[in-house]
Amino acid sequence: MKIKRVLAWINRASQYAEEVYNAPYRAAIARARREEEDLFMLLVFSEMMGVPNPASYYTLELQPLLLERFHDWHKRMGMEHSPLDHFRCC
């Protein structure tokens, strides 16, 4: 019984230490992740915007999965409206 309490305390202390250690880098990690997702979105929709994409065969299958995030992406990229002629999201 006492061992379980000690293990639980060690686990809680480990989680707390991890949170304290990661706190200063949280914004940088989030920014890097967002930039990586933006690049991936550009890769997936590049063929529709007239940019040749050598992997279009594979990225075509991903477009329906990313359509929900497409509006947020083109707003974040500075495009007021959808850059695609045949797809209007806003």
Automatic annotation (TrEMBL):
InterPro entries assigned: CC_star_Cory, DUF7990
UniProt keyword Hydrolase, yes or no: yes
Pfam families: DUF7990 (PF25952)
GO molecular function: helicase activity
Keywords for this protein: ATP-binding, Helicase, Hydrolase, Nucleotide-binding
Identification of the protein by name: DNA helicase
Lineage: Bacteria, Pseudomonadati, Pseudomonadota, Gammaproteobacteria, Aeromonadales
